[in-house]
Amino acid sequence: MEFFIDSADIEAIRELCAFLPIDGVTTNPTIMTKSGKEPEQVFAELAEVLSEDQKIIAQVVSLDYEGILAEAQRLAQIRGGRNVVVKIPVTREGLRAIPAVKAMGISVLATGIYSPDQAFWAAKAGADYLAPYVNRMCAYGDGVGQVVELVRTLAQYGMGAKVCAASFKNVDQVHRLLAAGVPAITVSPDVIREMVGHPGTSAAMDTFTADWERAYGRTSL
Ligand code: G3P
Fold first, then answer.
1. Which pLDDT does position 61 carry in this prediction?
2. Residue 142: strand pairing partners
3. How far apart are the first and last CA of the chain?
4. Active site positions, annotated
5. Distance of CA 206 to CAs 17, 213, 214, 217, 220, Å?
6. What is the pLDDT of residue 48?
7. Contact (Cβ atoms closer than 8 angstroms) between residue 59 and residue 111
8. Is the Cα dihedral 146, 171, 90, 106 positive or negative?
9. Which of 135, 164, 191 to mutate to test the pocket of ligand 1 (most atoms within 8 A of CB)?
10. Are 83 and 115 in contact, with CB atoms under 8 Å apart?
C-alpha cells in the first residue's frame, strides 16, 4: 500500500520523512497557497526533500479541457517527470481530459470525488488513482462506508485504478480505511503525528528508563 502526506509544508514533510517510510506527497491548489510560496518554489523544494522513489502528486488549476491538458504537461515536467502524478478533477471537462492525459503517458489521480459513482467513471476513464474526499463525503452520508464499498466495486470488475483516500479529520477515519485494505491514502501532517504518537508509549519508556537508571545508574545498555 502507499501512504502519502497531504501537504505542501516542506518542514512538516521533511520532519515526517525523516522517520516514516512515506511514499510521496499530494497537494491541491488550496494546500499550495497555504505554503505562502510560489508554486515553482514549492515544486523545487519538494523535488529536493523527496527521493525520486517518492511520488509528487500535483493538481491542475484550470478547469477547461485544453487548460487541463496544458497544465498536466507542465506538471509532468516537475523533477524531470520522474514519479510525478497529475491530479485532475472529476468534472465533465476533467473526465474528458483523463484519457487524453493518460495517452500522453502521464499518470493521473482523479480528484474532488464526493461519490463512488464519480469514482467509478474516473476509473473507467483510465485514472491510475481515485481520491474520494472521505471527511467531506461524511457531510452527505457514510463517507467511510462508501469508500470501503468503492474498493470492493473496483476489485469486483478488476479495474486497475487504486483508491487513494483523502480528506481526513481524524485518526479514526484513517484507521477504518486502513483496516478495510484501502490501497493508498493521503493524510495531513497533523493526523499522521496523531497516528504515531500515544501517551501510553511515552509513559512506558519513561518507566523503563527510570527503572534502569535506579538499578544500574545509567540510561543506556
Ligand atoms: O487533497 C484533497 C483533500 O485531501 C482535501 O482535504 O481536508 O480539504 O477536505 P480537506
1. 98
2. none
3. 36
4. 87
5. 25, 11, 12, 15, 13
6. 96
7. yes
8. negative
9. 135
10. no
Classify residue 97 by its DSSP letter. Answer: H
How far is the C-alpha of 2 from the C-alpha of 171, rounded, in Å? 17
* Class of the CATH-defined domain 2-196: alpha beta
> pLDDT tens for residues 58-113?
999 999 999 999 999 999 999 998 999 999 999 999 999 999 999 999 999 999 99
Test site for ligand 1: of 87, 88, 167, 187, most ligand atoms within 8 A of the Cβ: 167
Q: How far is the CA of 7 from the centre of ligand 1 (A)?
A: 9
C-alpha cell at 54: 517518492
> Is the CB of 138 inside a 6 Å radius of any atom of ligand 1?
no
Residues 94 and 110: beta-carbon distance below 8 Å: yes
